[in-house]
Amino acid sequence: MGRQERIARSIVQAITRANEIKKRGSSVLGLLLSLFSAFFSLYQLVLNKVRPADFSNLRRNHWSVSDDDYIESFQPGEEGKKEESLKAIGDMGFSGSTFYSTADQKYLVKSVPRHSEHSFFRDDLLTPYVEYMAVHPRSLLVRICDFLAVSGASLGRLLRSAPSHHIVMDNIMYGREEAKKRGEAEWENWDLKPLSYFYPERDIADGALTSDATKEQLADEFHDKIILSREQADDFFSALEADTKFLAEHNAVDYSLFLVRMTTPQQADVSAAATAESPMVPTDPPSVPPSPPTWRTGVPSADGKHIFRASILDFFWAKHKIQPKLMTLLIKLWNLLISNKGPMSITTTPDEYRERFMKMCRDIVEIRDEEAR
Question: Which of 5, 50, 262, 320 could form an S-S bond across to 147 if both were Cys, CB 3.0 to 4.6 Å?
Fold first, then answer.
């Protein structure tokens, strides 16, 4: 079993452990063997849920996802192994990060390997996030369904051979595999951040000092427009304003807008393209509530050509943590001594980042009034 598979197994065990303990019970010998195995493990670390009651409350009482349905997404088939219920969908990255999808495509699991990021979420943002999401059902902030953290001593933890923290979040690409089976056009997606900042990989020596693979990890560009009615645009920007205000108040920067575009089948009824009756929009959790159309399930463009989804991701970089402070100091010295390139997206102020982020979002939207259609 390889590294990715062992990490996947540790994630699944953390999600399903309570059910397994009820089924098999425990013994002193079994407990000792488990502790011995856990200590000498390099990749299959012991993970525990952080604040499980809070996330369970969000899932059950605000997103209508029962605990049984949630855990079922992490269960392998009758003959399957634990690691087979998660599929790696990204490379391990320079920092050893992982990216998995559940077999049913409903949830994504993403590692949060940097201490400054997972400590910010745990210590500063978790309580406000839970409270905010409970009263903002139409928020575009990604729905985080669980937060997993390593516990206990192990070689893998000491050597940092596997990620120590993971978030489980809903997948707004859910339904893409079914769309492929129906022969529909491939879904497109973009991970968007303001590109007007200083990016060393791109801006030092015109990018000649870094590889293309490194530069490809920078934010995407959306060379088109989201065509919306006035009402749709107002709803979109209202959610963005509220969400980014919340993030700025808690010192977060460098978050991104994850945008998904589906092409509407020519034979489809445009007026019903993004409703609950449309085969393009899955209606079972984690997509709802609230009922479609929403930016989580799909909003039809005003010209009837596309359906869009959107979510705000990666809001774990906070200005007051030690690593961001060091990066800010380095960029200030660079601007003072070498070349004045301005701030990076990770060294600017939360209010300034929010301003540029909102401008980026407004620039990709074209409002089409009813009389113009």
Answer: 50
Which of 199, 192, 198 lies closest to 221, judged by CA? 192
Please tell me whether residue 259 adopts helix, strand or coil conformation.
strand
Residue linked to tokens 């906070």: 318
- Residue the block writes with tokens 């079994």: 30
Give the helix ranges, DSSP H, for 42-86: 52-57, 67-72
Domains of the chain: 3-169 (3.30.800.10), 176-372 (3.30.810.10)
CA–CA dist 232, 229 (Å, integer): 5
107: Cβ contacts below 8 Å, ≥ 6 apart: 73, 74, 101, 145, 168, 169, 170, 171, 286
Task: Identify the residue whose tokens are 């200083």.
Answer: 198
Spatial CA neighbour of 44 closest among 88, 94, 20, 8: 8
Task: Sort residue 227 into left (φ over 0), alpha (ψ -120 to 50) or beta.
Answer: beta
Cβ distance 147 to 253 under 8 Å? no
Helices and strands, number each (H, E), in the chain = 13, 14
CA distances from 39 to 36, 44, 151, 156, 185 (A): 5, 10, 11, 8, 48
- Is the predicted pLDDT of residue 219 greater than 90, yes or no? no
Residue 83 pLDDT: 63
pLDDT averaged over the chain?
Answer: 83
In the DSSP assignment, the letter for residue 105 is S
Residue type present at position 51: R
- DSSP secondary-structure letter at 271? G
Q: Is 263 exposed, middle or buried (0-12, 13-18, 19+ CB in 10 A)?
A: middle
Query: Given pLDDT bands bounded at 50, 70 and 90, which one contains residue 24?
Result: very low
DSSP 220: B
- Cβ 58 vs Cβ 131: under 8 Å: no
What is the dihedral angle through the alpha carbons of 227, 228, 234, 240, rounded to the nearest 10 degrees? Answer: -50
Q: pLDDT of 316-351, one tens digit each?
A: 999 888 888 888 888 888 888 888 888 888 899 999
pLDDT at 93: 42
* CB distance 174 to 258 below 8 Å: no
DSSP 49: E
304 Cβ contact list (under 8 Å, min separation 6): 264, 270, 273
